[in-house]
Amino acid sequence: MSKQSVKDISHKDQKVLMRVDFNVPLDAKGQIIDDRRIRMALPSIQHVLKEGGRLILMSHLGRPSGNGPESAYSLRPAAERLDDLLGKDHDVQFSTDCIGPVAEEAVNAVEPGHVLVLENLRFHSGEKSNDPAFAAALADHADIYVNDAFGTAHRNHASMVGVPEKMTGKPHVAGLLLMKELEFLSSAITEAKSPFFAVLGGAKVSDKLGAIQYLLDRVDVILVGGAMAYTFLASQGHVTGNSLVEKDMIETAGELLGRAKDSGKTILLPEDHQCAKSLEDAEGVRICEIGVPPDYMGLDIGPETAKAWKSEISKAKTVVWNGPLGVFETPPFDQGSREVAEGVVTATRHHAVSIVGGGETAAAVESFGLAGRFSHVSTGGGASLKMLEGVSFRSVELLDDA
Ligand code: AMP
């Protein structure tokens, strides 16, 4: 279902309330470590400003208690960074509360072509609980509602669903980042070209179960790596040493392997592993074949598996990837993910559509310097995983149809 975007309506002199995802990582001194999420929101922000809108931005940051302001979670650093990124032509003001008299005064003072950033929505418990009075107070700020916060699209919080519900009769449109995310993560999957590969890794089978079930009907091949591979290998009776195995998921993993076989789909599991007695034991890293011996943990797919998967996936026409194939944060356990990422880059060069789910996988391909060579790297970890499960979002349903 396609939705109206910021480009479909006029913003001139209108008060535009835009939900963005400025949930950026901060260091102990409150400095922004990575401003990617702010930069990704710029196209929508600049569009509204160019069209003469009075822009009011709202976001959450981190996990404050919800009982009032906490300086460690203030959005002020994000507002300052936005001010730097927008340059001299656009003023960026900051309101120390997102509702109440302080916010109302600041909202009324925003001139066309300029910006107000509201303080962290989650300083009010009503954001997460979708409190109607809190949503109404936010809704009162504006004439137009824009949702450009893909990272939060799966959450039924006040700023995502309560506010558009309260703004009846006023436009509710998607921002350009949200449009792009939806386009890649939904149509690229439902209209995928074959061979279609899914790469699933990360910590737990239980987190990815919905995605495996949804993708199994749509893909040709699923490569299963990361810690979750060991639950699948355990279901086949292999020894897994001290690798992370979810005992209560072994039976389910076995059933999924059976379902794949019956429907002519391929689930590939690693045939060798980089193993160590602990993550710190860099000296004692060894390659194990098939099983993982007692006292050892499988911490990455092994070199033979990486080589084979890299070669296979370079022939793909569609790739979706969620979850690193090893503990990529600690070399040498980044090697498997790196090689497979290189294979996906080759496929992309040959016109495959390649999509990386956000979160850890995005961090992995960015650390390899390869993020720019995929078709799309999602900004949403949880939200992109939900889309791979085929879930539709209330926050998106509430936007006006094209
Ligand atoms: P997820 O958020 O479920 O995608 O999990 C990502 C995390 O899984 C990363 O931080 C990896 O370090 C971790 N991971 C990947 N492979 C393994 C493994 N073989 N053993 C333990 N942790 C792993």
Q: If you had to describe this structure to a student in words, what would you say it looks like?
A:
The protein has 402 residues and is α/β, with parallel strands linked by helices. It has 2 domains: 6-177, 3-Layer(aba) Sandwich (Rossmann fold), CATH 3.40.50; 192-388, Phosphoglycerate kinase, N-terminal domain (Rossmann fold), CATH 3.40.50.1260. The protein contains 15 helices and 15 strands. It has helices spanning 36-50, 76-86, 100-108, 125-129, 132-139, 158-166, 176-190, 205-216, 228-235, 250-262, 303-313, 335-349, 359-367, 381-388, 394-397, and strands spanning 15-19, 54-58, 92-95, 115-118, 144-147, 172-174, 196-200, 221-224, 266-268, 272-276, 286-289, 297-301, 318-322, 353-356, 376-377. The strands form 3 sheets. The chain has a 6-stranded parallel beta sheet, with helices on both faces. The longest helix has 15 residues, at 36-50. The protein is elongated, with a radius of gyration of 23 Å. It starts with 14 loop residues before the first strand and ends in a 5-residue tail after the last helix. The mean pLDDT is 95. Bound molecules: adenosine monophosphate (AMP). Adenosine monophosphate is lined by residues 201-204, 207, 226-227, 244, 298-299, 323-324, 326-327, 329, 359-360.
